[in-house]
Give the backbone structure.
Amino acid sequence: MLRNFFLKTLYQKRFMALWWFIGIMAITVLTMSFYHTFTNTDISAAIKGLPPGLQKIAGDQASFKTIDGYIRQQIFALRLPLLTIILAISLLVGLTAGDESRGLLETQLSLPITRTSLLLQKLAAACVIVVIASCGALLGIALTLLFLHEHESAGLLLKYILDCATLALVYGLVGFVVAAVTGRRGMTLGIASGFAFLSYLVDSLAPAVSSLHAVDKLTFFYLYQNDPFSWGRYAGLLLVAALLILVSVAVFNRRDIRQN
């Protein structure tokens, strides 16, 4: 068990996973409860009153009138990605640079386990936690749909959840790489969080600012979409994730662990 850091990490973070699951479910239920308010309210006049650039950011008002469009716009376009990205970054940075800053990593590596195995086991545990937390949105949507007397494809919702969880893990892996290079928790959190925020800002403004179109393609949000779901772009996210993992393992295996 001492060498099984996958199970050890899951056990240590079990309450974290539970509270994130409950929190995401609660936010999803609250958001979904406003669906009939949107369908019974004419928001087209408000959107048309915005400047042309902001109209593109606000999206197609017709999408708010269908349950699928509302779920995509209100849950998977904004709330769930941001929440799971925060979770993934904080979790992956904490399991690497956080443990190193507290002097735990050196102790862990004194056990009969390779650096690669240690890193990958922690990563696998983080992936499970992010997926569990993301499924809070799935349960929240399912419960709310019962009360709203609406229906949505379970398969489509699972694709949305998988896409969103993968996007969050990719941004978390940015922190994973920086932590493997520097071992410094504060710096890693700043770089990973800043990159995620700038990426979202660029992706949000790109429809209204033509000069950002090329830059937007460099963000991972460009590969994330749910209208419609594309296995091709999802494969792109997986490829980026694999490359980031390879870089983090290669760098971590060659770096001297900081003394604390």
About this structure: Residues 19-254 form one domain. The mean pLDDT is 86.
